[in-house]
Amino acid sequence: MITLNKVIYRYSMADSEKSANLEEVMHFNLEIAKGERVVVVGPSGAGKSTLLNLIAGFIQPTSGEIILNHQNMANIPPGKRPVSMLFQENNLFEHLTVAQNVALGIKPSLKLSREEKQEVIDILSKVGLEKEVKRYPHQLSGGQKQRIALARSLIQHRPILLLDEPFSALDQALRFEMLDLVNHICEAFSLTLMMVSHYLDASLQQFNRCIVINDGTVIFNDEPAALYQPANQTVAELLRLKG
Ligand code: ADP
Ligand code: MG
User: Fold this and answer.
1) Is there a contact between 194 and 163 (Cβ–Cβ < 8 Å)?
2) Which of 8, 48, 50, 51 to mutate for ligand 1's pocket (most ligand atoms within 8 Å of CB)?
């Protein structure tokens, strides 16, 4: 479903000490099966968002293949990839209702057919917002706002869902509730999920697989429980995981 084959991403960074540009390189090889739910962790600046942006198509690799649904999409624009991505900043429009914010996911003109309007309601009830359809984002809590953004992603019916630290602004109880909801939705819609998280707690166990990124590459790729095995002590220490 998602294959990154020798993906190289080069970029230059200003080096203030030498007043020159430093060439930096990230490289990714990865294979994720349809329906897997993968959590992506690693230190800040390691390249987690870069990895998701490469898959979504917001940035292009210098070389290598990004195969989604059996097709190399390394040079295909984001809108034409089978991918939807949700950021920590949910980018809701304050002057639009909950339903209109979701409708944007199918038609920027907001001129929906009766069937499409019904679909908006259906998706909103799947994320538990059926009563808030006519309200505005500022009338809702942080968790509810992320549900709107999630609904807007889901209505595009793209089989790959990428979440970049989507629940970091929420308190712990709500974060676990949202994780439950995401798990449930991935099952219901048969989605393949990659979610960046900076939480190294019990939430890791909710995923089929954990990928650890460090210095622009994958240094661990296994089931979450394997992080606690002696062989992976170095990775656990990097993440400051306690056994
Ligand atoms: P993470 O999400 O793991 O915190 P990011 O993927 O956002 O990390 O970024 C990794 C590093 O790569 C950061 O230091 C960032 O500044 C740098 N970076 C990524 N892309 C570019 C670019 N096009 N130009 C300059 N720096 C970049
Ligand atoms: Mg990031």
Assistant:
1) yes
2) 50
